[in-house]
Request: fold
Amino acid sequence: MDKRPAATVDEYLALVPEPARTTLEKLRANIRAAAPEATEVISYGMPAFKYRGRGLVAIAAFKKHCSLFPMSGAVIDRFKDDLEGFHTSKGTLQFPVDRPLSAALLKKIIKARMVEIEARYKG
Reply:
């Protein structure tokens, strides 16, 4: 991937080689569908989505995998059974480019993160 920093999500995606670009574009569409009120930004050099001004999730492409960053270790813990077979750590979920998260699982993660944001940042 080109090392120039991207200013927008579209610029970031344009720099990602296939097949990772298509994988991230599908993730982006599914995130937008699950959280239509979320706004897109570049955060830490990655496409990120904010909900009510707070970090919802971020996505990124790497040489051998793609990642979803739910910005919450609790969300990863909550869905650990659903995430079996994927590499996870406290803040990231890695998956092969050719085996992305299902739209249904991604939606559950997004909705759980939105509830967490609502509860934590009332007002």
About this structure: The mean pLDDT is 92. The chain has one domain: 9-115. Residues 9-115 form a domain with the Aspartate Aminotransferase, domain 1 fold (CATH 3.90.1150.200). Helices lie at 9-15, 20-34, 73-78, 103-120.
